[in-house]
């Protein structure tokens, strides 16, 4: 079996759903259920013995030690993190606590566990750390995309905390020989994306008749990847990646934010037109820019393609259409997230600990 942390979040939930759709290898899902963790995203696995949910913190050494000793997973995939840049600007402390200190404690537990393994189990064990392109900083319009050799130049408290965790993971390989793999991925989008991030926020606000807040001039560029393609890249790296190596993952799909917002509006105009006949783009509102806003990210995904044969299956056109359709078909999920209903469920289920 494998231990997956943060699998009640956006990418982790997609990863577990995809994993169990393709394999019967069980998953232990360790998640703290912060505001971003939502077990409703995994409700299709209710009663499925292949998914074991454990409520807890990656920084809880006693808990993680026990889970590793009891279940003896062949791999740990670490998604758990505070992930939203704007929140890191308003309050960086949780980012340091989970992304830096939490990852450190997790690494210590994993190192101790790996030390108890022998022979084939020791050789096959992997720790896969899921990271971001934001650790590389920002690009000028004509700069080539980020390769794995690009210097780390994080600019937000979020990206600095992820950079710190990447360095710890790297150090545990070089110092202790821990068989680690790191993936640095560009912006994901798709089902179960929390509506604080650009694409789901635009869909949800558009349908609610609210303003669509575009930061600054809207010409910041991101490299978008459909979440299921990120999940397939992680599966591939886990399967065939070389310990100690990092792999950049991206969609070869750079677009300015305003183009993304206009695309979402056009798809909504087609699939769920406004009653008054106006286009959703009339709701676009330019607002104050994010402090320290990185202007451009772009990933050079040559290495993972050349060495591991991975490439994305979706184009942006197919992926964004599926995403908008998913939000239209799953408004109950959105309403539940927005109403805080899932938090009430967490409180009821887990009491004050959650
Ligand atoms: P998310 O915020 O949707 O989910 C994070 C999950 O981690 C939540 O379920 C939360 O409850 C859990 N968590 C937080 N702190 C925890 C702790 N201390 N212990 C256990 N669980 C904890 O994030 P996401 O968008 O799914 O991102 C997952 C990972 O992928 C993160 O490491 C992020 O940095 C990375 N990443 C995200 C993107 C993206 O576009 N979303 C792109 C590249 C990399
Ligand atoms: O690049 C990978 C990263 O992508 C991940 O590591 C992060 O976890 C993930 O949150 C994401 O970070 P971004 O800051 O790029 O994503 P976000 O959706 O917050 O913003 C995307 C772009 O849209 C960014 O340039 C800011 C802009 N934006 C965002 C919001 C929420 C707006 O213009 N308006 C908004 O309301």
Describe the protein's architecture and organization.
The protein is an alpha/beta fold and 354 residues long. The chain has a domain at 2-190 and 226-252 and 293-315: Rossmann fold. Helices cover 45% and strands 16% of the residues. It contains 13 helices and twelve strands. The protein has helices at 10-22, 61-71, 85-90, 93-116, 119-124, 157-176, 198-207, 227-240, 257-271, 302-308, 316-329, 331-339, 341-350, and strands at 2-5, 27-31, 51-55, 75-78, 126-132, 180-185, 187-189, 212-215, 221-226, 246-249, 254-256, 284-287. The strands form three sheets. The protein has a seven-stranded parallel β-sheet with strand order 3-2-1-4-5-6-10, with helices on both faces. It has a three-stranded mixed β-sheet with strand order 7-9-11. The chain has a two-stranded parallel sheet with strand order 8-12. Helix 6 (157-176) links the parallel strand 5 (126-132) and strand 6 (180-185). Helix 7 runs parallel beside helix 9 (257-271). It is globular, with a radius of gyration of 20 Å. The model has no long low-confidence stretch (mean pLDDT 96). Residues 83-85, 132-134, 186-187, 197-198, 201, 213-215, 220, 222, 257, 290, 297 line the site of 2'deoxy-thymidine-5'-diphospho-alpha-D-glucose (DAU).
Provide the fold topology.
Elements (H helix, E strand, L loop, with lengths): L1 E4 L4 H13 L4 E5 L19 E5 L5 H11 L3 E4 L6 H6 L2 H24 L2 H6 L1 E7 L24 H20 L3 E6 L1 E3 L8 H10 L4 E4 L5 E6 H14 L5 E4 L4 E3 H15 L12 E4 L14 H7 L7 H14 L1 H9 L1 H10 L4
């Amino acid at each position: 079996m494998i231990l997956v942390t943060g699998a009640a979040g956006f990418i982790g939930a997609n990863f577990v759903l995809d994993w169990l759709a393709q394999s019967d290898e069980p998953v232990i899902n360790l998640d703290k259920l912060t505001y971003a963790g939502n077990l409703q995203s995994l409700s299709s696995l209710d009663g499925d013995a292949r998914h074991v949910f454990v409520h807890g913190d990656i920084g809880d050494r006693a808990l993680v030690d026990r889970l590793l000793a009891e279940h003896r997973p062949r791999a740990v995939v670490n998604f758990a993190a505070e992930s939203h840049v704007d929140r890191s600007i308003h309050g960086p402390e949780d980012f340091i606590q989970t992304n830096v200190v939490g990852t450190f404690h997790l690494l210590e537990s994993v190192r101790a566990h790996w030390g108890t393994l022998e022979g084939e189990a020791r050789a096959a064990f992997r720790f896969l750390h899921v990271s971001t392109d934001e650790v590389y900083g920002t690009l000028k319009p004509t700069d080539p995309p980020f390769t794995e050799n690009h210097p780390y130049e994080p600019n937000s408290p979020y990206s600095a905390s992820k950079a710190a965790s990447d360095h710890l993971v790297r150090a545990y390989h070089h110092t202790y020989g821990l068989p680690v793999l790191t993936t640095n991925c560009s912006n994901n989008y798709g089902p179960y994306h929390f509506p604080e991030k650009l694409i789901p926020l635009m869909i949800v606000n558009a349908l609610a008749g609210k303003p669509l807040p575009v930061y600054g001039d809207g010409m910041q560029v991101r490299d978008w990847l459909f979440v299921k393609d990120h999940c397939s890249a992680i599966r591939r790296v886990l399967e065939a990646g070389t310990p100690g190596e990092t792999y950049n993952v991206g969609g070869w799909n750079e677009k300015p934010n305003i183009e993304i917002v206009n695309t979402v509006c056009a798809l909504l105009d087609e699939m769920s037109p406004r009653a008054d006949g106006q286009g959703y783009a009339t709701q676009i509102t330019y607002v104050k820019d994010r402090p320290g806003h990185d202007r451009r990210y772009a990933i050079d995904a040559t290495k993972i393609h050349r060495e591991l044969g991975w490439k994305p299956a979706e184009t942006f056109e197919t992926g964004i259409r599926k995403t908008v359709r998913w939000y239209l078909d799953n408004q109950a999920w959105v309403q539940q997230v927005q109403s805080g209903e899932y938090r009430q469920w967490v409180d009821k289920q887990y009491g004050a600990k959650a």
